[in-house]
Amino acid sequence: KMTQQMRDLQLAQARKPPGPSSPNAAKRLYRNLSGKFRVNYTSFDEGSLAGRGEKEKLRKSYLFQSNAALFEAVELQDLDRVQELLKQYSPEELDLNTPNSEGLLPLDIAIMTNNAPIARALLQAGAKESPHFVSLESRSLHLSTLVREAEQRVNELTAQVVNEAPNADCSEKEKQLKAWEWRYRLYKRMKAGFEHARVPDAPTNVHLSVASSSSVQVTFWEPLSVNSAVVTKYKVEWSCSPTFSPPLGEAVIDKLKNLHFTIGGLVSVSSWGAPWVSGLWGESPQLGKATGRTEALDHLLGQVKTVHQHCICHEPCKNQPQSRKHSVSKSLKHLFHPGSKFLKTLKRGLYLTAIFYKDDNILVTHEDQIPVVEIDDTYSCLLMQDFLWFTKVSCMWEEILWLRQCVTVSQSSCSCILQTRFKMLLAISQMQGLLGIQDLGQVFFEPVKDKQGNILIVTLKEVKTNQTFESVRWVPICKLQTSRKSVSSPEEPTALDMLLISVQDKLAYHQRSSHALSPGLYLGYLKLCSAVDQIRVLVPERLPNILCHVKIRSNPNISREEWEWLQKMVSVDEPVPAEPEAETSQNHLFQELQVAIKELMTLVNIPLQEAKDFRLYSQEVLDFGGQVSFLLLLPPSDDVCTAPGQNNPYTPRSGFLTLPLQIFELGEER
């Protein structure tokens, strides 16, 4: 039917004067033509519009064009245009969920062309998948049919163009040929995207809470993986059996703004369950808690401030000799000048850049540049100790002025280290002043370096409110990446180009590092590796603020009986301790630990037979707050920390990274 409709259109269009022959014109031509055959659409000829006002005619015609424009923008993968149309028109005005003549919806095209940003924008606006395909087989068959028909039409038009003499009809057929060739490529891309699609990752932070005497509420978050497949709906199932056999019910959630569901119609059970003996810890010293640590550190910092304020060496610099004023370099003086601005280009030196982002947008200067200020133009090699000191300063963004005063006092010693750190504080103050905000966010765990000697220290902060900034504006990240013209070669990119290329990865790291674990008891794996100037710790990319881990159970508490059994187990000389008696809490923990150790060994790619040489840390249970506690699994003492040049026989699979230990500690504290 679609082929016959296109043939009829060809005859009708042949009577019209020839139009432009550019590829874009061919795409617009086909879009406008194919749009007239959308399902549930009534042709707006003069007869059907009889009796209606001229305004109504124009409005409906304009809305039809908007609907066609949305399909065209999705097919051309124009995210800006899609977002503009979704803001300008309501879903009803756009016919957002009305299939086109091919039975496809905008969301279908976005998903099958693997365009996650456009798919998410459509989902937020209420887009749905086409209801015409009840199974994967029917969708695959339909795509194959579209590809075959488009290929056949291309072959027919090619033969006609080759065989006919040049005339008006031939010119029109060349335009149609270009349109069909482009559509043929689109269908092939959609078919390939559908065939290579994979299921999304599992939802995270799933919680169950009592909503009433006869209902419970399930809440959850999206999958952690930023590279996961696009989620268009969620299925919630419930059952009285842990194996969900048989299930008692299920529901589909396709409104993705509210990820929760209430299970109703439940019946309260009034009988007594089986007894369970439980031993509580109380004030046992074996539970390593962080209670009061933050308050103690704040108190200690207050004492340090008090000492500095009353220190005789903290007198104003007015008593210094006059020559001291002239020793300040021009590179420092210009930081205090009211005309200080962000840098446009980098010279050889050390710089600070701040990345503020909100959804898919990022803050840039008026020159479409990520905000950058200079730290030191004579510093070509960033020492790890200076960088780690900077990361500690990031915990005190509001105290920069006080820190500057403290470091200024010590400058008379002419220490290169103190000079560099003082310049770091000046750069922080300059960035805060230019942006009009004190909190610059979290420091990325490694600087960006290029071969020209430029070094960028990167801070990241997600903006969740409508916050006002100075001297900057919001732009879409994808637009910034495509519009910025690189001034470096692909072989030797500058630090700014490297930052722009990897900005999505850095934002993903920052988002993942703020996620928290669901309540429960976990088994963590501690693995370190040392270098000349630092020690690094192995962490998962999905949660870089937590050690490699697997969940043992949902209950985070360890009973006294369980802890005493653990103490005995790690102290015995036998490689495999005796299994505790059945139907006890110790036996349950023993079985849970066995499963968790096997899962953890597989996760970090260590042969299970090597687990006999591993040991449990038995000094304390680590309590991270939020009903999350950890037992630590340690490699043999000689393998806990891999020395420089020492080969690690068991390399973890993909999905892991190593962080400097100080960076990891700061992330865990956050």
TrEMBL record:
SUPFAM superfamilies: Ankyrin repeat, Fibronectin type III. It comes from the Eukaryota. GO terms for cellular component: spindle. Residues 1-26 are annotated as: Disordered. Transmembrane segments: none annotated. One of its GO terms (biological process) is establishment of mitotic spindle orientation. This is Ankyrin repeat and fibronectin type-III domain-containing protein 1. It comes from Cariama cristata.
